[in-house]
Amino acid sequence: MAAPLLDHPRQLTESVARVLDGRAVEHEHLTGFVNSRFDAFLNQLFASGSVAPREAAAALEGRPGFVWLIEEPAPLVMYGMTAATGAPLVAPVDAEIRQVRSHADIDAWHEIYCEVLGADARGRGDWHAVHEALGPGGEGSLVLYVAHVDGSPAATGGVYFDQGWAGLYCFATRERMRGRGLASALVHASHEAARARGIERALLQATPMGRPVYAAAGYREERPLPLLRSR
Predict the structure, then answer these.
(1) Alpha-carbon distances of 28 from 12, 33, 68, 71, 112, rounded to whole Å
(2) What are residue 164's phi and psi, to 5 degrees?
(3) How far, in whole angstroms, is CA 45 from its chain's centroid?
C-alpha cells in the first residue's frame, strides 16, 4: 500500500502544475512540484532519502510546502488510510452537502480551508484556477464540497480521482461546528461521487486528530507518513 498513498498526491500536484505553470523539482533525494507562492498543499515534494529541513527549504525556493519524508522522527506524522467506497451509509446529519460550482462557492470553501487549516488567504486565486481546470466545468477529476448548517458554510472536503483511486483531501470543519458528523457526511458524498465513476477504492492522509474520525467512517490505517511542512 505504500505507493498509492503518496503517488496519488504526487499526481494531483502534477495536474495542478499544468494548470498553474508550476515547476517540477528534480533535486537529490527530492522530487515533486512547486506550483503556488502561497499555498503549502499545492507544493508537495517526496523524499527518496534522508532530507534536512534546509534542503527542503532550498528545493521549495522559500515557498511553503509539504515534504513527505521516508523516515521518522519527523515534525509531523500523518496516517495513510484506505477504505472501500461502498462502505455503509452514515447516519443522517442536519446539514446540506453542496458541490462547489461557482466562484462564490470557491470563496466560501477557501475561507473555511484557510480558517481551519492555516492556509494563506492569498492562495485563493490559485484554487479558482485549479477548480476551473480540474473541476466539473473542466476535466472533472476534482470535486470540492461545502457542508452548510442553517445556510452557513461549516465544513469542506475534496476528492480527486486518478488511476482507480479516490483521494480525499482538504477536509476541515469550523471549530464551533465540530461533533455534528459533518466530516463523515463529506466522506460519504465523496464515496458516492467515486462510485458514480466506478471507483471502488479511496485513500487519504489523516492528521492524528482526524484519524479516529476516518476510522469511524470505515477507513483502515495502512502506514504512518512522516511529513515536514515548510512555512
Answers:
(1) 22, 14, 14, 16, 36
(2) 80, 10
(3) 14
